[in-house]
Amino acid sequence: MRVVERIDQVRAFVRSVGRSTVGLVATLGGLHAGHRSLVEHAMAAGDTVVATLFLNPTQFSDAADIASYPRTRDSDLALFRDAGASLVFAPQVRTMYPPGCDTTVAPGRVAERLEGLARPGHFRGVCTVVTKLLNIVTPARAYFGQKDAQQVAVIRRMVADLDVDVDLVVCPTVRDRDGVALSSRNALLTADQRARAVAIPRALAACRARFRSGERDAETLRTVLRDRLAGAVDVEYVSVADPETMTELDTVARPGVASVAARVGSVRLIDNVPLEPAN
Of 122, 131, 225, 239, which has fewest CB within 10 angstroms of its CB? Predict the structure, then answer.
């Protein structure tokens, strides 16, 4: 596995292997088994994996949030190596945003809700850095996790609207034994906070079970989420929405997505489950 910092090195590598074989796994660092699963999905598809390790400052509006983000470069590189990545692009901030860089990518309406309201400017930063990475790497496929459902919807809309030649592959959320979705921020939880965080996947599981039992009224499903979360975590929002537009639904007449954002102490966690009929 090679680790490079320059854009020309990435492009030379992609030319040498052929872009049709390249799968991109873009990360902020602070890696865990969920990130590993993205590499493994790409490997299983026969892709040559180009992974990125870049803590993108433009998607953080809160200085304390980026300051607390885990920085684990050595273990991150070891995870990529063990999972089978061929190249890791780990640029400096000045490489991605050189002096005078003044162009951003503004997301559309899908970014105005939920996380877009809670984190102003976040999705502009995501769209800008993802566009840059797609232009640098030019992968045939790019792998993202279902855990960030709204991010997937925003990027899918952006790729379609800007005619980006890439296939987006969405991989299932990876969870710990207690059901909590893997997240780089989980490391910041105390033991007591971790025990309280279990309420989030349990609430989502109860919502999905109610949906699969035949409930289609979205407000009833949102009430299930609120009731199951009450007293355990500080809820920022619960949502039952269209997975493509993230607009709140009145009736879940077709597959939807149930989402939660909550704070456990000072740690902000997000999670979701697709609402699809049981097989």
Answer: 131
Question: Domain of 201: which CATH number?
Answer: 3.30.1300.10
Domain range spanning residue 254?
184-275
DSSP per-residue codes, 177-203: TTSPBP-GGGGG--HHHHHHHTHHHHH
pLDDT tens-place string over residues 47-57 = 999 999 999 99
The C-alpha atoms of residue 26 and residue 56 are separated, in whole angstroms, by 11
Note the pLDDT tens digit of each residue in 152-166: 999 999 999 999 999
91-135: per-residue pLDDT in tens?
Answer: 999 999 999 999 999 999 999 999 999 999 999 999 999 999 999
CA distances from 18 to 12, 122, 140, 142, 237 (A): 10, 33, 10, 15, 44
Residues 192 and 60 in one domain: no
Q: What is the CATH number of the domain that holds 112?
A: 3.40.50.620
Is the separation of the CB atoms in 221 and 240 below 8 Å? yes
Active site residue 35: yes
Whether 158 and 236 share a structural domain: no
Q: Which of 147, 171, 195 is the last residue of a domain?
A: 171
Pairing of strands 234-241, 256-264: antiparallel
Give the list of residues 6+ apart from residue 269 with CB closer than 8 angstroms, or none. Answer: 180, 181, 183, 185, 186, 197, 200, 233, 261, 262, 263
User: Do residues 55 and 153 both lie within one domain?
Assistant: yes
pTM beyond 0.90: yes
Q: Are residues 254 and 117 in the same domain?
A: no
Sign of the Cα torsion 239, 245, 247, 250 reads negative
